[in-house]
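call fold(seq) -> tokens
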Amino acid sequence: MAKQHKRLWITGLLFFIALGIELLYIKSYHVYYFISQDGYLYSNIAENFLHGNGLVNSANFKTGADNLVQMIPKNRDYVIGPIYPLLLALIYGLFGLKSYGMVVSVLHAVLGAAGAVLAYKTGEVLFGRKYALIPYALTLGYPLFAFWEMYVLTETTYVFAIWLFLYCLTRYAQEISRPKMSTLLILGGVIGFSNLVRPLLLLYFPVLGFWIFWMKGWRLKRSLRDFFLIVFMTVVVMSPWWIRNELKYHQFIPSSNYGSYEFYLGNNPRTITNSYFVFDQPSYDPAVKARIDKLPVLEQEKEYKSLGASYILSHPVLFLERTYAKEKNLFWQPVSPEEGQAYKMKGDFLDKWYLLLGLSGIILSLIWLKRYSFLLLYILYYSFVVSMITVVSGGRYRLPVMPAMILLGSLGIVLLLKGAGRLLGIPQEADRRSF
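ret:
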């Protein structure tokens, strides 16, 4: 009991240290928040929820030529994963509507600090308690996590969800021979929670199923038992949202109902693979776009999705080549000095060093492939899916892959410290990890 209390005390202390660092970083910007077109949309949905109208938007927003966001008459219903609007509604309920500054300094700061604690807890399982502070410190030191906390966007919430997912996956990997029922159900619930923030883990199940099958020594019965329990819990968590969408919109909407235009931009004969996505870039056929723009909005979504999917199926090799090019030229590119200056980031130059550290960890992890394979597969999956869907820069859209990169980067530091300890004759603790 005393040992458990000590662990709770240490965890609490680490959380409050992390929270203090997060708040200091936020204060260093001398602004309360940043908000974009998407942020106003999330806020509008949260306000409607508090007014008793449900999780719906009552207005649309667009960014004008002067980069100022303007409210425009509603021309479509946006279905957005409910977690972030509900969290905004909680903050608004406590501090008042449109309290964007409190969203940043309370919600985002708390989630950022909690993510650092999860990095510590995951490091405990992967490397032992002696080295768990390494991923904790690297998480707090990564400037892009802190910068995007300043925005009223889903980034911080989703990064927290990914930390939670990786922690639960690490626990499952540790118990792989005889996993607890609670571990399986919690992992499935966390995947469902993540998808209700942003649905980028919806396509992960084939990868997860293959990994479980491999880790179980190709034992089909045991693998299927674990896999189906995880999927079952994911469905349980997400099904209320599915049922709500079916009743309200009379169609199956797994999480969100937009993004088809970006999917088309990323997958058509004119797709640009070395330039950051903006709506006016010439990466589409103007005649096709002019025709589709005359359709109702929902029909536009269907048409763009169909065109993108048809292109992939008709050009599978070119699709893979273009996706790889987008990964190489955009997703994995560090933040440039020009981009950092444009966004007025602080510490953005560290991004490239974090990427190099993560890359070194990836190379080292190949030596212990089974132990770290779940991190490698997640990194490969996420970078491929994001690069497949659209054309985006790495600075913002790479954030959810950075927890795994930080954990693998920590591996290199751990090995370096252990090697130095052996040279200095410092006794090494026995490694009791079983996976």
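The beta strands are 60-63, 69-72.
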